[in-house]
Amino acid sequence: MTATYDRDDFLTDFGDLPLTANIDFGLLHAVLEASRDLKEKKYDHAWSTRLRRLTELHDNGVTDIATILSVMTRESTSRYTPVVDDIAQQINIDLGDFAAQDLGGKKLVASHGRYVLTDHTQRLPTAMDLLAPLVPSDADVVVEFGGGWGRNLAGLCHGLGRRDITYINCEPSPSGRAAFDTIFSHAGGVRARSREFRFESPDMGFLGEFSSVFAFSWAAIEQTPFLPVDFVDRILGAAGSVTFAMYEPVGWQQFTNITQFVLFKILEELVGGVAEADHHGRRYVYRFADALFHDNAASWAVACRYNTNLLRCVRRVVEAGRARLIGIQYDLHGDNPVNPYTLLAVTKD
Questions:
Q1: Could you tell me where the beta strands, DSSP code E, fall in 201-287?
Q2: What domains are defined for the chain?
Q3: Which of the residues 103, 148, 321, 349 has the least number of beta carbons within 10 Å of its own beta carbon?
């Protein structure tokens, strides 16, 4: 977050909600900067393990993108009992509608706005599955914002099979950028590069060299509680033709009452002096019933300090006629069932 996200920006995003009276924006800025730094260190550490593995593969002569993705995917498979283990260890769970069912060999996921039990072997949607149909035929660059170690861009490069495209990873963490560079270091004939990037202060000037841009984020904007109010406009204004797709957990942002609740809780816990033991995430019980689908997702957003304003940013540019909405599919999937992802896509040409 930067100092430019102030009271006026908050009112631009949330002027319809009665929440601004007692907010200390200076304190909020400081707290969110500290939170961002901690998240970046966490992800830099996570991507450093991917970087070491990628380096080992390359040292052993494994340089084919398809093989690299297959190995990395196989080695990062999660366990479920029936909720993915690393999530189950963080939250209070009531199996609700599934308490009386046989859960053997099953995992509980979010799918199309509902909770469902699936087989452990069911494959997750990939960037190739969801994003490839949105890439314009004349695109000369594919850029991911918050691309981590490069899995999505590598998958698109392999799946699209296009060598006329430049692939760019805009990533905050040095380890993520280095991992991406390692993947593409032996991808003959592919133009690829990484760039340092911050969602809170995005520099889109580098896109000016391209004529048709396909940009996307995938489970990345979620980490930024308050995007700059002109974030989507900056992307759309970076080139003559731009398509921007977002796969982010914003389904709950459709609802004004839930948005107000999430904002109130996040602000209360960050700058309102609420004891950590009394934070919402410590006390809330995630009951797996479809009637509580968005309540659970909103509670996870509170606990993780997730994004609150992406859907409003998108709606503003569409309602103002600065972009066309070409795709919206709410709550498509969540391997973490309390964090379902929505696919949004806008274009300007």
A1: 212-218, 241-248, 285-287
A2: 1-349 (3.40.50.150)
A3: 321
Cβ–Cβ < 8 Å for 103, 82: yes
Orientation angle between helical segments 151-160 and 65-75, nearest 10 degrees? 140
Q: Which residues pair with 165 in a beta bridge?
A: none
Nearest one of 32, 34, 68, 31 to 51, comparing CA atoms: 68
> What CA–CA distance (Å, rounded) separates 153 from 313?
25
* Cβ proximity of 69 and 155 under 8 Å: yes
Residues of the chain with pLDDT under 70: 1-4, 20-21
What are 302's two structure tokens? 């509170």
pLDDT in tens, 13-51: 998 888 766 788 888 889 999 999 999 999 999 999 999
pLDDT given for residue 80 in this prediction? 77
Residue with structure tokens 């452990």?
Answer: 120
DSSP conformational letter for 80: B
- Burial class of residue 146, CB neighbours in 10 A (0-12, 13-18, 19+): buried
- Tell me the C-alpha distance between 187 and 237, whole Å: 31
Structure tokens at 231: 């974030």
Torsion of CA 1, 212, 215, 311, to 10 degrees: 70
pTM of the predicted model as reported, rounded to 2 decimal places? 0.95
Integer angstrom CA distances of residue 206 from 135, 178, 213, 217: 19, 19, 11, 17
Q: What is the pLDDT of residue 19?
A: 73
Residue type, 277: A
Task: Work out whether strand 141-145 and strand 212-218 pair parallel, antiparallel, or are unpaired.
Answer: parallel
